[in-house]
Amino acid sequence: MSKLVVGKAVPAFTLPSTAGKDWKLADAKGKHLVVYFYPRDNTAGCTTETAAFRDLYAQFKKAGAAIVGISADSLASHEKFHAKLNLPFALLSDEDKAVCGLFEVYKEKTLYGRKYMGVERSTFLVDARQTLRREWRKVKVAGHAAEVLAAAQAL
Description:
Elements: E1 14-15, E2 23-24, E3 32-37, H1 44-55, H2 57-62, E4 65-71, H3 75-85, E5 90-93, H4 98-102, E6 106-111, E7 114-119, E8 122-126, E9 132-136, H5 144-154
């Protein structure tokens, strides 16, 4: 798969979804799309970030933007997390980390001096023609969803 570049088309991908069927990038054609990657279901930062996207969902929708959240958690884990937070958008499961690799978000991380591989919190804004318009890497949760909303509204 080719490297993702701002201003270039996002390569097609398909992942299992909490919507009950596989989700394809083509499903979002004609809408702007926010793709956010997060490390794990039911952790403090990921819950806060996901809830922020949920709370701004109506405004994203008004701006013509769909949202999907992706992590390497199982679909069963996602379904529990999705229900717990009452999400109006799908979570996608990337257990083999192929899409994480495509977006280059599966990285070596360090926690308390210990190195390990994991998903780096990152968000990507794709326009209605499926061209990558913005990327945010090493995201800090506070205020992030609102910043992404402003960028989506500006498209």
